[in-house]
Amino acid sequence: MVGMRPQRVEIQPGTVMNFWVPTEKSKGSSSTTVQPNDKRPKKAVVFLHGFAADGIFNWQFQVLSLANKYAVYVPDFLFFGDSITDSTDRSPSFQAACVAKGLSKLGVEKCTLVGLSYGGMVGFKMAQLFPDLVESMVVSCSVMALTESVSSESLRRIGFKSWSDCLLPETVEGVKAMFDVGTYKLPNVPDWIYKQFLEVMFDNRKEKKELLEALIVSDNDFIVPHYPQRVALLWGQNDKIFNMETASNLKTQLGERATLESIEKGGHLVPLERPCVYNNNLKKILASLLEEGALPHNMIYIQQTWRASSPRVVS
User: Name one GO molecular function term (predicted).
Assistant: First the structure.
């Protein structure tokens, strides 16, 4: 990947997490990277991937689009890519803590998170547990927590009995069914590509199944946290897993510091399905989040209140 290189970071004995980091970054450098002849430091943006693939596959188009302007970091969650652990903890909180510690070891002190689906859930945990690290978030097609009610309704809507049935396919037809659920329109690609995806992306099946089981929490146990960060929700308007009603409910839970925009003809995997539209909107959102960071809180509130309470639709 142009402008990026993989770096394995030991989080603790027995736990190693792979990060894709800027090529110009040297060990022990700060959370911002300065290019030659440019006095302006790059802000750190951390991309958190979904469950169906590793980090660089999930975010390849966004990395190529944003790496020149931002210091981009793309971790592989534990049991994805080259990340591994001997811990038995499968919770999103453990993933969040490992990403946060890895970023700290890489010298990242402040960052904006961009999370898709499973990555959004881990991102919310990071924002809750490490507010000094996470300044703001962009969340796509995700929830704060996968409660039993949200889980059962989503599975009913897509026609699967369990998340492992959907997200851990064992056949080419199973991979096609997963992408059919995840996209507005199933990609018209030959079967050998689905076969290669099946062979490459679905190792560590036992551990990944445990990760999915650890995601679900009781409705009675879930309490909506307060997030001091601003959160921008960027959704696929045709998401079949977490639909626009789910997105609107999430915006309500987040309150006045959240915004919601949706992309037409975009499904759950909207960053992959409509990368150009997604990237254009992501660039605007990141610029807004980072520029507004210097404004007084009351001006931020005025700007956010001015935005339409219903999602802005982009095509």
Answer: hydrolase activity
